[in-house]
Amino acid sequence: METTKNYFFADMGVMFGRSMRHVFRSMDTIITVTIMPIAMMLLFVYVLGGAIQSGTDNYVNYLLPGILLIAVANSIGYVSFRLFTDVQRGIFERFHSMPIARSAALWGHVLTSLMSNVISVIVIILVALVMGFRSSAGVLSWLGVAGILGMFTLALTWIAVIPGLTAKSVDGASVIAYPIHFLPLISSAFVPTKSMPSAVRAFAENQPVTAIVEAIRSLLSGKPVVGIDIFVALAWCMGIALVGYAFAMRVYKKRT
């Protein structure tokens, strides 16, 4: 007889489909993850952009990388919320009483985070094109952007899994999103860091979002040499993802 391990990908696909249906049925999730970043982009480009000295004539080109990270950050609270809801309802215990792969339910939530952010990012980029965004990046550069955004999403998702499994309340599960929202605001996502006070500038230049934003911005500009930012960005994403995964899986095994 084949073991449940043989059906891991099939089980994970079922869990992924279940979680994605929850996303599509939640208007609040769609508004927060997609519409709010677009509204922020419209605000900064058409209301505040003229007063911001970004060093470029096309501010939407400068702004877009930060908006994409904002969209990813907005989605993280919902990962924790969906996991918390499943834990409180005893969904994991029910799944584990069935002949399915033990970690399939958790991976379903992780893949949902990745896919929902892919959809959100595509929609935001399409709106940015209408607003005047232009890029001379080639196929490899766009693949690099996709890879960095994917790793950033995966890193934050594994961090979000931890409170989703351990929180005692909905507020406790969702609180992880607040500090993550804060990081893009104190970075080079909206304005160059050179315009900031020295203490704020020191923090902004040495936190992960700035390195990731600069790497994406360089790739989208089609520069032949991206520089050290891309390696710093990858190091941050990989480091956060590995630490988050290790702790998340440890908590998941204890919880289940």
UniProtKB/TrEMBL annotation:
GO terms for molecular function: ABC-type transporter activity. GO terms for cellular component: ATP-binding cassette (ABC) transporter complex. Residues 28-255 form the ABC transmembrane type-2 domain. Keywords: Cell membrane, Membrane, Transmembrane, Transmembrane helix, Transport. It comes from the Bacteria. It is a multi-pass membrane protein. Its main location: membrane. It is found in: Cell membrane; Membrane. The chain crosses the membrane at residues 30-52, 64-85, 106-133, 139-161, 173-191, 225-248. Pfam families: ABC2_membrane. Belongs to the ABC-2 integral membrane protein family. This is Transport permease protein.
